[in-house]
């Protein structure tokens, strides 16, 4: 190999074939993927042997001169060239550093492989530069500048468009950290960058960010304990010391400030924090081993917060700190350490979200980071690790194994005492889900033998108070852990049963409210014939009865203990139904001191003991009934299993005999008979089971069944609203009992179903409403046909004010829908509103529900989405931002291209059936959230007629422009022409619609001004007639006070109206004068009416109306009926009882021909009436179109105005009438 390398070097350097050799090497690089490493070694060998780097320089420059677009088309060539450059930087760092600038244009290319390779090259060069030191100051400055420039590029490339390049940047920083080439000045910058990349959309980038943060923690220069409180305390101490030193020695401060701190600069260049000298707190010789060996030195779990702070402070403090400059450097280092700890602690919320990621790598590396953070005592790491426990139920094997390994490493792989202590601490304040997860993990570890016998002994010592410093809470926690272990290994209880009875049911149970419940729970693991004699010898059942009948337990703990005691009775006792009946009778006789089941409500209201006893009794009735139902099912399964085993044994024995022809024929003949016998046996068992289940509640009518006798009592108490409102605990118990009885019997359920829904809606206690919604879920599974009409009321609980009720409603509905117990209908819209719930846990649960729903069948969300869109759009109180978030999430669950294309067509057709602009905007937004393929774009363009009318809205056009801009980035070149045409079509339609809208508004303003002017003229004529005292039917009221007051009021209203409309009339007149209309006026106004010059200009508009006969007749009719209405109403106010037909407007008026025509038309009849704004629009389109169209700019607008047809005109009240009438 060296001979070939020597030959290549000789040809290129000694014989000056540099250009030819470089071209040949590049050709080989692009063609063969196994040569990059060897060719780089050959180039480096030539430079080392002949002391001539011309070949390497020529290759670098030739690669730099290549067009970056060539590498975008040649993927293998880009990959090989990248590998070659990385190897060349490894062997010849100085030469590559000097000439790396010629490679910078490739950062702007499209090939992510070249960009990723250049990042690796920069990482190699920065690592080499951090370890080298030049004596020459100029070369040292140049080296540092080059290094800083490459670091800046690497920081910038963390936001590269390619996820592969971003991932390579993070991996390169991790390598620099492992090689101790990362200075303390860059530590926090890199940590911030990695923390920001945790939310990257690419999984490989998130994985690299998690690995980088883990590496930063392992190699951190700040110490083995990174608690924020410890750093803050130490930093405050040294800041005070620095201030005192500064105030005492100001002269020394100035002197030391002028001296160059070469040691600090050297430490920053080399990546170690050595600038503090031999007395510094972060010397390299102490830091590196401590950081790497922290995994072998775990901290004790029982260390208190103050002890952790003192321990961390002792690691940070120094025995003696020198001058003021060193103290200042120490303060700066402490500030950097504090910033780093806060940066890592701030990522805990993001890490919790990554634990719920669907990507296995996210979960796996998040668990590793949390384990490392816990070892360094990062704030919040312990609580985050506990949230990983439910992931043990994940179907991903990698996630399951990662959780199991982390649990074993953190909590179990210790000495026996620490293992027991860790497991006990986990049970403290753990939720039901955490306990179930912990039980599953321990079951797996016990099966593998990872839980040692010594650890189990230590747990028994804690339970029996033999461990030093054991408390009652720790005793209960040890018993919880032992019950989990006993499910996989029940034999551990055989020698400690007496301890369980004595401690679990003794005096300690009064101190710890949950100890008795835990003792009952662990006894349930002793089921089977093997332990029957053991249980009888210890009189376990007597202790269970004492737990139920005892009044010494607190109210909060009695229910939990009694529930587990009854469960233990039905698991362990050979005749649980008889034993439970005895318990129920004893409890009733001891609590109520009566042989009958009569409850004195007055006494219950006065005595709290009676109410408590009644509450406990009802709880026992409901729970015993439910356990009896479960017991019957277990007995039926046992019978079926015994019969199956018997038949299998008979078949095996028959098969062992010699098969004779006659016997085989006989067997074939009897197959049908045997099947018939088996079927009849199953039917008989089913009938017996159904009868036994029904007799639990309905058997009380015959007086033979105790639960049936108590059922009417439960129903009676449940209907006593006043009593339940006074005692919430009684309401909880009775509603639980009622719900359990309803589950057992369909007839009983139907009778009290309305009561249950009423309580679920109106109960004051949140717990009662939560229990009711859970019971409704069970009833839906049990009697689906009975609950189907009440589906809407179940969904209504999603709007409950209490967070617990909404959460339970979400969980119940999710369970019912995902398990096909409830059909998905339009009510699902109520569930979508919970996506924007103020409680984050509810929002996450709903998101998980829709994520799982999208996996069922052919994605039901696809069919539900249009209906959800319509229902949400009709909710006027729903904010636009919330609507957008909901629809964006739902549309994101649709992945198939065919469904996307079908959804485009469905949404476009929604434009046709909608006239609401808000719904247009919502539909357009949903279209903008879809992923458009080539077919999708064509289908959207083909449906243009469906949404053409909606393009007048700016918001709709904005969404369509967003669709077009997004489609241009991904569609093929041949489709871009279609997109351009579609874009032009949308813009033109939008502009055309806007012009039509502007024309319509202009026309309406003209029409409004014209109607006002006509009303003004009609008011003048009416006032003139009322002022005429010589003629008319109103003369008889001339001298009356009321008539005079009314006349004066009418005149005042007329004058005020003239003043109000004067400005609008002037505007109309000016607008009409600018048009091509005639300025002549044929109107005659009586001299008695005072008309201003601006009012005399109004008839220019009226003259336009006369040019069209239809228009003039319509306007005259409108004036006639308008004036008639005015006069009729005025006459009705002046003369009571007189009809409008008796008013003679033209009796003694000296008006023009037009006024006479108005009067004649008013007396003719009221077959035509003038409406309000709708009539104004129709009059405009009928009569004003010759002159209105002259103001328009496009033919489309003219066409739109002409095609509208008039409709019937409603009556219109005049202005005078509205103002006079109170």
TrEMBL record:
GO terms for molecular function: histone binding. GO terms for cellular component: condensed chromosome, centromeric region; condensin complex; nucleus. InterPro entries: ARM-like, ARM-type_fold, CND1/NCAPD3, Cnd1_C, Condensin_cplx_su1. Keywords: Cell cycle, Cell division, Chromosome, DNA condensation, Mitosis, Nucleus. Residues 1028-1041, 1174-1185 have a biased composition (Basic and acidic residues). One of its GO terms (biological process) is meiotic chromosome condensation. Residues 767-928 form the Condensin complex subunit 1 C-terminal domain. It comes from the Eukaryota. Residues 258-271, 284-297, 1072-1082, 1090-1103, 1111-1121 have a biased composition (Polar residues). Pfam families: Cnd1 (PF12717). Residues 243-312, 1019-1051, 1071-1207 are annotated as: Disordered. It is found in: Chromosome; Nucleus. SUPFAM superfamilies: ARM repeat. Regulatory subunit of the condensin complex, a complex required for conversion of interphase chromatin into mitotic-like condense chromosomes. The condensin complex probably introduces positive supercoils into relaxed DNA in the presence of type I topoisomerases and converts nicked DNA into positive knotted forms in the presence of type II topoisomerases. Belongs to the CND1 (condensin subunit 1) family. This is Condensin-1 complex subunit CAP-D2. It comes from Ceratopteris richardii. The lineage of its organism: Eukaryota, Viridiplantae, Streptophyta, Embryophyta, Tracheophyta.
């Amino acid at each position: 190999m060296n001979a070939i390398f020597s030959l290549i070097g000789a040809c290129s350097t000694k014989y000056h074939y540099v250009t030819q050799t470089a071209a040949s090497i590049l050709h080989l690089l692009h063609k063969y993927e196994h040569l990059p490493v060897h060719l780089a070694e050959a180039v480096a060998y030539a430079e080392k042997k002949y002391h001539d780097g011309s070949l390497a320089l020529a290759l670098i420059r030739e690669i730099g001169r290549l067009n970056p677009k060539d590498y975008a088309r040649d993927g293998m060539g880009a990959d090989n060239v990248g590998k070659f450059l990385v190897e060349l930087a490894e062997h010849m760092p100085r030469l590559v550093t000097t000439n790396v600038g010629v490679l910078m244009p490739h950062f702007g290319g499209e090939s992510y492989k070249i960009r990723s390779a250049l990042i690796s090259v920069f990482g190699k060069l920065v690592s080499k530069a951090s370890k080298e030191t030049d004596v020459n100051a100029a070369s040292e400055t140049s080296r540092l500048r080059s290094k800083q420039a490459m670091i800046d590029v690497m920081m910038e490339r963390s936001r590269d468009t390619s996820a592969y390049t971003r991932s390579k940047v993070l991996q390169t920083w991790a390598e620099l950290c492992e090689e101790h080439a990362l200075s303390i000045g860059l530590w926090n910058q890199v940590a911030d960058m990695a923390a920001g990349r945790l939310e990257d959309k690419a999984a490989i980038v998130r994985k690299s960010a998690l690995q980088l943060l883990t590496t930063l923690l392992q190699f951190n220069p700040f110490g083995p304990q990174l608690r924020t409180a410890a750093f803050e305390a130490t930093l405050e101490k040294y800041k005070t010391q620095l201030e005192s030193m500064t105030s005492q020695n100001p002269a020394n401060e100035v002197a030391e400030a002028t001296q160059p701190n070469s040691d600090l600069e050297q430490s920053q260049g080399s990546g170690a924090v050595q600038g503090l000298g031999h007395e510094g707190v972060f010397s390299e010789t102490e830091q590196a081993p401590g950081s790497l060996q922290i995994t072998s030195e775990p901290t004790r779990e029982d260390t208190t917060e103050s002890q952790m702070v003192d321990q961390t402070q002792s690691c940070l403090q120094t025995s003696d700190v020198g001058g003021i400059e060193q103290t200042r450097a120490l303060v700066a280092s402490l500030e950097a350490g504090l910033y780093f700890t806060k940066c890592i602690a701030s990522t805990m919320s993001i890490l919790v979200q990554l634990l719920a990621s669907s990507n296995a790598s996210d979960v796996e590396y998040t668990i590793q980071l949390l384990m490392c953070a816990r070892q360094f005592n990062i704030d919040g790491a312990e609580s985050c690790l506990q949230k990983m426990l439910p992931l043990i139920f994940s179907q991903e094997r990698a996630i399951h194994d990662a959780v199991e390994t982390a649990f074993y490493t953190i909590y179990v792989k210790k000495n026996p005492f620490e293992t027991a202590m860790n497991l006990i601490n986990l049970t403290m304040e753990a939720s039901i889900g955490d306990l179930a997860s912990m039980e599953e993990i321990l079951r797996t570890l016990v099966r593998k033998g990872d839980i040692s016998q010594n650890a189990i002994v230590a747990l028994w010592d804690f339970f029996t108070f033999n461990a030093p410093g054991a408390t009652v809470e720790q005793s209960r926690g040890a018993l919880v852990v032992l019950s989990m272990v006993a499910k996989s290994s029940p034999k551990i209880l055989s020698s400690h049963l007496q301890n369980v009875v004595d401690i679990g049911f003794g005096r300690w149970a009064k101190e710890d409210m949950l100890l008795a419940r835990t003792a009952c729970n662990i006894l349930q693991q002793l089921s089977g014939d093997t332990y029957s004699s053991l249980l009888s010898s210890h009189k376990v059942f007597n202790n269970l009865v004492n737990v139920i009948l005892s009044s010494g337990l607190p109210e909060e703990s009695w229910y939990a203990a009694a529930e587990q005691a009854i469960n233990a009775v039905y698991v362990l006792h050979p005749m649980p139904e008889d034993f439970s009946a005895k318990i129920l009778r004893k409890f009733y006789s001891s609590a109520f001191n009566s042989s009958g089941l009569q409850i004195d409500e007055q006494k219950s209201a006065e005595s709290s003991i009676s109410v408590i006893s009644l509450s406990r009794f009802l709880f026992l009735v409901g729970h015993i009934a439910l356990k009896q139902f479960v017991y019957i099912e277990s007995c039926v399964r046992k019978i079926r299993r015994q019969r199956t085993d018997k038949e299998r044994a008979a078949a095996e024995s028959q098969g062992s005999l010699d098969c004779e022809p006659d016997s085989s024929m006989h067997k074939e003949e009897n197959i049908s008979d045997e099947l018939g016998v088996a079927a009849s046996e199953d039917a008989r068992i089913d009938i017996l089971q159904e009868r036994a289940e029904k007799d639990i509640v309905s058997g009380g009518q015959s007086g033979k069944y105790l639960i049936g006798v108590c059922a009417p009592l439960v129903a009676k108490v449940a209907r006593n609203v006043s009593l339940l409102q006074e005692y919430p605990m009684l309401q909880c118990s009775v509603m639980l009992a009622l719900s359990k009885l309803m589950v057992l019997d369909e007839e009983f359920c139907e009778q009290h179903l309305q009561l249950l829904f009423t309580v679920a809606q109106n109960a004051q206690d949140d717990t009662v409403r939560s229990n009711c919604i859970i019971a409704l879920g069970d009833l839906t599974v049990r009697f689906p046909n009975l609950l189907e009409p009440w589906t809407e009321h179940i969904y209504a609980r999603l709007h409950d004010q209490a967070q617990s009720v909404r959460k339970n409603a979400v969980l119940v509905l999710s369970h019912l829908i995902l398990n096909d117990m409830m059909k998905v209908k339009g009510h699902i819209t109520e569930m979508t509103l919970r996506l924007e719930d103020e409680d984050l846990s509810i929002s996450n649960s709903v998101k998980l529900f829709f994520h799982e729903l999208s996996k069922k069948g052919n994605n039901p969300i696809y069919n539900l989405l249009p209906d959800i869109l319509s229902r949400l759009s009709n909710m006027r109180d729903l904010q636009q931002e919330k609507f957008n978030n909901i629809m964006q999430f739902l549309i994101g669950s649709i992945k198939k291209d065919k469904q996307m294309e079908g959804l485009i067509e469905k949404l476009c057709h929604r434009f046709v059936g909608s006239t609401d602009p808000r719904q247009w905007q919502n539909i357009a937004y949903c279209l903008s959230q879809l992923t458009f393929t080539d077919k999708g774009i064509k289908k959207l363009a083909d449906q243009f007629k469906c949404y053409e009318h909606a393009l007048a809205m700016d918001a709709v056009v904005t969404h369509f422009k967003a669709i077009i801009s997004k489609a241009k980035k991904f569609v093929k070149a041949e489709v871009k022409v279609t997109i351009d045409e579609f874009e032009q079509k949308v813009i033109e339609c939008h502009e055309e619609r806007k012009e039509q809208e502007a024309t319509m508004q202009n026309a309406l303003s003209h029409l409004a001004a014209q109607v006002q002017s006509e009303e003004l003229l009609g008011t003048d004529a009416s006032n003139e007639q009322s002022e005429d005292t010589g003629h008319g039917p109103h003369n008889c009221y001339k001298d009356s006070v009321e008539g005079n007051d009314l006349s004066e009021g009418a005149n005042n209203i007329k004058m005020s109206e003239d003043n109000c409309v004067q400005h609008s009339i002037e505007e109309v007149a000016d607008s009409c004068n600018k048009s091509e209309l005639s300025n002549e006026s044929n109107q005659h106004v009586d001299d008695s009416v005072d008309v201003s010059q601006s009012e005399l200009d109004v008839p220019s508009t009226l003259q336009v109306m006369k040019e069209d006969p239809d228009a003039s007749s319509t306007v005259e009719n409108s004036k006639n009926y308008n004036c008639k209405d005015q006069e009729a109403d005025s006459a009705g106010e002046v003369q009571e009882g007189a009809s409008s037909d008796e008013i003679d407007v033209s009796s003694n008026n000296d008006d023009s021909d037009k006024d006479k025509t108005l009067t004649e038309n008013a007396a003719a009849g009221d077959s035509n009436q003038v409406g309000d704004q709708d009539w104004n629009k129709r009059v405009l389109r009928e009569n004003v179109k010759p002159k209105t169209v002259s103001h328009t700019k496009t033919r489309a607008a003219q066409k739109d105005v002409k095609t509208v047809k008039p409709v019937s005109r409603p009556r219109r009240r005049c202005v005078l009438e509205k103002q006079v009438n109170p």
